[in-house]
Amino acid sequence: MSQKDLYIYNSLTSSKEKFKSLRNNSVGMYVCGPTVYSDVHLGNCRTFISFDVIYRYLAHLGYKVRYVRNITDVGHLEDTGEDKISKKAKTEKLEPMEIAQKYTNSFREILKKFNVLDPSIEPTASGHITEQILIIEDLIQKNLAYISNGSVYFDISNYNEIDSYGKLSGRDLDNIKSNSRDLVSQDDKKNEFDFALWKKAEKNHLMRWNSPWGEGFPGWHLECTAMSKKYLGDEFDIHGGGIDLKFPHHDCEIAQCIGHTGKQPAKFWMHANMLTLNNKKMSKSTGNNILPNELFSGINDQFSKPYDPNIVRFFFLQAHYRNELDISESAIQASEKGFNRLIEIINRLSLVQTVKTKNDKLLDTIKKWENNCYDCLNDDFNTPMLLAEIFNSNKIINNIENNVTEISQVEKDYFINLFDIFLNKILGLNFKKDKINNDSVLEILLKLRDNARKHKDYKLSDSIRDELAKIGINLNDKD
Amino acid sequence: MSQKDLYIYNSLTSSKEKFKSLRNNSVGMYVCGPTVYSDVHLGNCRTFISFDVIYRYLAHLGYKVRYVRNITDVGHLEDTGEDKISKKAKTEKLEPMEIAQKYTNSFREILKKFNVLDPSIEPTASGHITEQILIIEDLIQKNLAYISNGSVYFDISNYNEIDSYGKLSGRDLDNIKSNSRDLVSQDDKKNEFDFALWKKAEKNHLMRWNSPWGEGFPGWHLECTAMSKKYLGDEFDIHGGGIDLKFPHHDCEIAQCIGHTGKQPAKFWMHANMLTLNNKKMSKSTGNNILPNELFSGINDQFSKPYDPNIVRFFFLQAHYRNELDISESAIQASEKGFNRLIEIINRLSLVQTVKTKNDKLLDTIKKWENNCYDCLNDDFNTPMLLAEIFNSNKIINNIENNVTEISQVEKDYFINLFDIFLNKILGLNFKKDKINNDSVLEILLKLRDNARKHKDYKLSDSIRDELAKIGINLNDKD
Description:
The structure is a homodimer. By secondary structure, chain A is an alpha/beta fold.
């Protein structure tokens, strides 16, 4: 176990800071989840895998982590001002909540395949309307929000009198003005950079709730404030999300919280970087895109063969979460080879012969290596460094295999357990499962039978066929 | 495909009625889901499997089914008036929503193992507070509900002036009075049989929302009214649930709906019957209880070995959903045998030799059998009759095997496809998956290797060892 301090890069201060939880041994972590109006983006998967490792490591350190990752099932608006889920519901001719359910289910399935742990709470935006309304009422009362034509907007000008908007992203208002893409209903707003807390539902809008300002639906930024506050309190330890959410989403959250509670909600703001495909931004419209299931099945235009979710996860973790990462066939193939080499190392270790005498010197060497591994994790969850360090264990194993060093069962068990801790428990890589690939077992059996038939050993080939038939696998020989 | 009418037993009229959907080809179906404060009860699984078959069959008939099955994450009260989830949260020292999330996740996992399809929408009670408040406000305005000490109650006396309460269960008020177990806060109520629409949250109550009557939480019965109305409209086709929900839950729902919209919400009310264990009611307190995962793993005091979810599903479907069913070791073992016999029948069919000439007479026989199968389903989803009918196919296959009847590929394909339709698609039994049991494949390979070693065929045994090592399975020979 690591005895050293954990340092986390805080986007708010642009520096690595020593992590200390706000409440004894508990950690509250909020991560912005998906908008469930289409299949989850591979880049988002990378983000959720990054925070999964962070969650796993904090739990491993002994923290009781309450991990909240929301589902945005309402309020995420298109540039046109249309709700993304409502729009998709019209296209697919389904009730908006059927759309949300469909893509929530598929999101969960994909994350399961990636061996991502369930968060402690997975709240939905639509499930927290009353909480959002309460915050809006408070902001209006504090003169930080105003009602306009059935909608409610956050008043950036007034807010800037108590604190400055855009702290996280470091943007100033002029910069924000020129980058604003919120072109709709500008007439309702006092200033173009004000953002919606509540939107009036037009006649044909499907998702609508009653509110003090008439029927409408909440703005996107508000839900995360309502849910993080409800489940983690006014102040909590970590707020994470994809780097694209830094502005405006997270800056809006901060403004809402400071306006509402007077407090900066999260001590650490963490942002996971982008994933590109063949060195270009992924985008459905240009076709430079791949869905997770397309990657797993091999049915896609980008890659020549299927890649196991476990390999993709390993590939992601070979880059630091704060760095941009490019996925390409050659890069992922290199990862696949690396992954197999790692399995080989572990298998070799499991096969080394032990002696009866304990070897304290070797145990020290292994513990030194263990500490190096923890150092990587303690340095802002540096998974690529950790994986490189894990490969370094090869030298120790070489020495044992070549009888330079002797190993007893004590050191062997300790060593093997560390692989389990770092690879399975903390990085969430599925080594054990991968070791027994059942399809491959069947393949071996079929190859064996083919071989027997070629050599006219029909006794063997028939016995394989009959045994398989017994368990319901019927072979239809074409020849 | 069935050309005949579907008849469904309607609990509201206590008779089988011809099913006709309210809106063209669409069916709206609402089923009361679990209260997520503990592991799902095996009896509840039976209920959800029953409605899964109903959902699958309606979809198979060509209906576009919107299937709503809720998650009760607030409001289901103990006899003591305590919220079940809040109570558990205190015991487990977790936020109530962590409890709800934990058991929602485990519920979903168990249902996945049972091969139960996801509903179209899986809404939560806590996610529909605003909708519930609106209904309460309307009921108060209509003099069908009254505020008392921060809570709101449904007024049965006033309701009885517009319709009679207890229609579904057929109870009269005297009967209800003597059976009422709602002993708490009686002082707040005008009449002891009135039920809570909104409960005032006491100081220490963890789950609380703002409302026109102060902070509180919704009553249990109301959530289903709010969610069914929201996603299926004031009137929809089917409302289902376990038979224990008939009274008071469903009678309260009916009263709320008739009071609020003037309409009886569902055309058909369907109730799935109880599951007992060794002829006694399942109950945690007496120890006469078994959890789904305990049944699957074999780690329990009741059964001698593990049973696959697929076998348990098959066992459930061998009883009609409206009949009580008792689970015992002997009963489930009989089902396991039956299931294996069914696999055997299908395997035998897949192995029959075909001739080139089509056999129209045989096709007629098969189609007659097909019709018999549909007749079972059309008779209130009679799955035990259907399974018995499926076993009858054995006679046809016997005749083919014994060369009494010849079969061409046309009839064979048609026949095999029917098994796929009835067993996999409609009954949701997992035949294909079960056919490839990967552990068994490895077993065959290991048996083969043992045999080779015994016969000193080391070339074969070594090649198997090496091939397995390649995929990470290392064999440690003891001898």
